Every structure is written in structure tokens, then in C-alpha cells.
């Protein structure tokens, strides 16, 4: 009897945490497109500052080549370099499909372009979680036979505030999401139009800080702020362009000898059949501000050669230079896509929540390391990736470090309100028992290091078996 009494006292202490008080893991990943790492230093940004104080800041994120929008957004949710996840540009050509792909439309919604990798929102759901996506690039495409359980079809005219309200609602539903992704088009658009050094961009950054404030307030109003691990980052930075720094391909090679895939500052060149040597020799050494690589000679550290969607010849402009066919088109004042080792290409990174340390600063991290970090927070076994949790482990709170056991799948909560209290208590008790069993099992696994790689799917039947005892 004494044991039963002790157990019920213990349950009474623990139940308020486990019976629907919202302590399950929740992760929200936010991208402000083109938010360069140092934008937080040029105008007052009280909301970014608050997140830095409350959590962690990484000064610069070393992103992946090419430093364009789609490749980098897909890296953030897969932990893979572009040559591995297959989204090698905003515009692509696949010689096996004999098809083109464009961020603006063509092929974008065909699953096969995206299925060289599996994004985290899919992996989360396959392990029993629920994902919600508000306009994240690719999140409204069917990948691996599924969509996020909640998502918004891409529509640039939907205001930021509406996207936030949708996500908050999904986090609060009867069957809530536990992983959300949120995307906003600025300051990329204004960075292209006005240039990153323009005064107009100061206003845009101030506006984004207000938008971040709106997100923080909505999370607070809905009592989610202290439960959600919030990551704010971006895909790339931006650099100033100059109208005199133009490289015109028509000056060097006949335009009918090649097709160009993806655009400045890194241009994929597909020579017409039989014209590779002529096109290559015409471009090589044509302009001192343009690097010309055969695909197989692309520097190793770019991780940008082992994919058929990478073109046989790659042109790369030096920072601030633009590659055009001729001067007929519009001219932008800002661009990105350059060498990923340039600091101007690097995005911001700030995170806060129960998984993260408070008031901690780190110089830099690689964007491929974010994926294993997010898997750790969600308690998921990561798929093969180019990142390493060890590189970013110092961002995590001690509590989160200790709590690294992949979580068991918990069935959906009952919906009958009249039974809510009783069923909630039962679920709470089940959770406590599950926790104890997982704890005991984990202690056992520590004695058996070779078995430590059990993933969630594997642990599920074991747990059920144990619960039947
Ligand atoms: Zn972008």
C-alpha cells in the first residue's frame, strides 16, 4: 500500500505537466528571406535583441553554395548540400527528365524534383508528429507521398500576420502540430530592388522587427511563448551591385551555342551538342571578374558537382558583379548567390525556448548543422545528412542535452469534452509510466552502447510490449 501511496503522490506532482498543459515539444522555424547576419546592427531591432537576450545568437550562418533561395531553404530542412538534396538552383534543368524547373512555376509542383531528399516536416510526420507550414518554399509540394498536415498553398499576397495566426491556431488545435515552418519574402525583395546599403532597407528591417514582435506577442497571448522553441534565421544575405560591374556574355560567345540555366551571379551553361570545347574556351579567361569552371573542377568545398542537374560549365561572378547576356534587361541594385564563403552571403540566426541556452553567443555555424539540431529538439532520428549536432551542441540548454531520448508516439487525445478530465488523467498516468519505462530503457541502453541508435519507429513496438506487462 505504501508503494501505491508513494506512486500516487508522485503522479499528482507530475500530472499537471503531462496532462495537456502543453509541455510536449514544439518547434517553430522562421525564415525572413535574405536577412543578412549584420542587419540586426544597423537600426534598432528591439524584438531581435530580446530574443538574443532570452536565447542564443549565432553571429553568422555559413550557408551553402549556391547562395540562392531554394537551395538554401531546402538545406535548412534537410541538412544536405545542394548536390545531395537536388535543388541545385532557383532554376534548373534535369537531363534525365529532359525538363526545366523554375521557382516561378515550371515543374515546381512536380514531386520528383524534390524527392532526392526528405524534408523535416515529412520525417516528423512519419515518426508520428504533426507538421504545419506557412509558405515555406516547397512545403506545398507533395513530397514522399505526403504534405504537412496543415499548410498554406503559396501566395505571396497573404500578409505575415495571417501566416502567424494560422500557425498559432495549428499549435493550439485539438490535435496540434509540433513542428511549424514560417516564411516571409522580405527583406530579400527590397534588398534586390534598393540594394542592401540603401536607406530604404533600414525601414524594411525595422518593419521586420515589428513583425517579429507580432509573432512574439501572439505566442505570448496564446501561452505558447515559453513552450515553443523558436528559431529565426534566413537563407542568404545580400550584396550591393554596381551598374558598371557588368559581364556581358554576348561579347565572348555566340548566344546560339548554349543554353543558360539559372541566372547571375552563378550561371549554369549547357553548351549545344558538340560545342562544349568552343563555348568553354571562349569563356575561359574572358573576363577577370568571372570564374569559369568545368563541372568536375568546381572547388570541393562548394560541394557542388555531384548532381546531374549541375551544368557542364559554371560561371561565377566576383562579388558585386553581374553576368548578363547583354544590357537589355532590368538592373538590380542588390543580389546574392555568390561564393558561400563571403560574409555578405551569410544569414542571421537567433533562437530561444526551453531547448536553448540563455544569453549565449557563438561566432558562426554551418546551415547544414541546423537539421540535426532540430531533429534533436523534436526527438527524431535524423536521416543521413551533411551536418553534425556536435558542432552546435553548445547552443542547447543542459536540460535539453539530458533530454535526448527519442520520444514515444502518443496516440491522439480523445475529443469528448465530458470525459476530458478522466481521460486526461489516464493519459497523464500513461505518459508518466511511459516516461519511467523510457528512462529505465535508456539506462539499460547506456550499458549497451551498440544499441543506442534505436529510432522512434523501432522504440514504438518495444514500448507497447512493455506497457502490456
Ligand atoms: Zn532568398
Automatic annotation (TrEMBL):
Tree of life domain: Eukaryota
TM region positions: 419-440
Keyword Ion transport applies: no
KW Cytoplasm (keyword) present: no
Chain segments annotated as coiled-coil in the UniProt record: none
Family annotation (CDD domains): Enpp
Signal peptide bounds: 1-22
Keywords assigned: Membrane, Signal, Transmembrane, Transmembrane helix
The name this protein goes by in its record: AP3A hydrolase
Organism: Denticeps clupeoides
Amino acid at each position: 500500500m505504501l508503494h501505491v501511496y508513494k506512486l500516487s503522490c508522485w503522479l499528482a506532482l507530475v500530472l499537471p505537466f503531462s496532462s495537456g498543459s502543453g509541455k510536449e515539444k514544439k518547434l517553430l522555424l522562421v525564415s525572413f528571406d535574405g536577412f543578412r547576419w549584420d542587419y540586426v546592427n544597423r537600426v534598432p531591432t528591439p524584438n531581435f535583441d530580446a530574443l538574443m537576450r532570452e536565447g542564443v545568437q549565432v553571429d553568422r550562418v555559413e550557408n551553402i553554395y549556391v547562395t540562392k533561395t531554394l537551395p538554401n531553404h531546402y538545406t535548412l530542412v534537410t541538412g544536405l548540400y545542394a548536390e545531395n538534396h537536388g535543388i541545385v538552383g532557383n532554376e534548373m534543368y534535369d537531363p534525365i527528365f529532359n525538363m526545366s524547373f523554375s521557382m516561378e512555376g515550371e515543374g515546381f509542383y512536380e514531386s520528383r524534383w524534390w524527392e532526392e531528399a526528405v524534408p523535416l516536416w515529412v520525417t516528423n510526420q512519419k515518426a508520428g508528429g504533426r507538421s504545419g507550414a506557412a509558405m515555406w518554399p516547397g512545403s506545398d509540394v507533395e513530397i514522399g507521398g505526403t504534405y504537412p498536415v496543415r499548410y498554406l498553398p503559396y501566395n505571396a499576397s497573404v500578409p505575415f500576420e495571417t501566416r502567424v495566426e494560422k500557425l498559432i491556431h495549428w499549435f493550439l488545435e485539438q490535435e496540434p502540430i509540433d513542428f511549424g515552418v514560417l516564411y516571409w519574402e522580405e527583406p530579400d525583395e527590397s534588398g534586390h530592388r534598393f540594394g542592401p546599403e540603401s536607406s530604404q532597407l533600414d525601414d524594411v528591417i525595422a518593419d521586420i522587427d515589428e513583425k517579429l514582435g507580432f509573432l512574439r506577442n501572439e505566442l505570448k497571448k496564446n501561452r505558447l511563448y515559453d513552450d515553443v522553441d523558436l528559431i529565426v534565421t534566413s537563407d542568404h544575405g545580400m550584396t550591393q551591385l554596381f551598374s558598371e560591374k557588368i559581364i556581358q556574355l554576348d561579347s565572348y560567345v555566340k548566344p546560339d551555342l548554349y543554353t543558360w540555366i539559372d541566372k547571375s551571379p552563378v550561371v549554369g551553361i549547357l553548351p549545344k551538342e558538340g560545342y562544349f570545347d568552343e563555348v568553354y574556351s571562349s569563356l575561359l579567361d574572358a573576363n577577370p571578374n568571372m570564374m569559369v569552371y568545368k563541372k568536375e573542377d568546381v572547388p570541393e568545398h562548394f560541394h557542388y558537382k555531384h548532381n546531374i542537374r549541375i551544368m557542364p560549365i559554371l560561371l561565377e561572378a566576383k562579388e558585386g558583379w553581374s553576368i548578363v547576356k547583354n544590357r537589355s534587361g532590368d538592373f538590380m541594385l542588390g543580389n546574392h548567390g555568390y561564393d558561400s564563403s563571403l560574409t555578405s552571403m551569410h544569414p542571421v540566426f537567433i533562437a530561444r525556448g526551453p531547448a536553448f541556452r540563455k544569453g549565449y553567443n557563438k561566432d558562426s555555424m554551418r546551415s547544414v548543422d541546423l537539421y540535426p539540431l532540430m531533429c534533436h529538439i523534436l526527438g527524431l532520428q535524423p536521416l543521413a545528412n551533411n551536418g553534425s549536432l556536435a558542432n552546435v551542441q553548445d547552443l542547447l540548454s543542459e536540460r535539453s542535452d539530458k533530454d535526448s531520448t527519442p520520444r514515444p508516439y502518443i496516440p491522439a487525445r480523445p475529443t469528448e469534452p465530458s470525459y476530458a478530465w478522466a481521460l486526461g488523467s489516464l493519459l497523464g498516468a500513461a505518459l508518466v509510466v511511459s516516461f519511467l519505462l523510457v528512462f529505465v530503457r535508456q539506462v539499460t541502453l547506456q550499458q549497451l552502447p551498440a544499441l543506442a541508435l534505436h529510432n522512434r519507429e523501432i522504440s514504438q513496438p518495444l514500448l507497447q510490449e512493455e506497457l502490456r506487462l
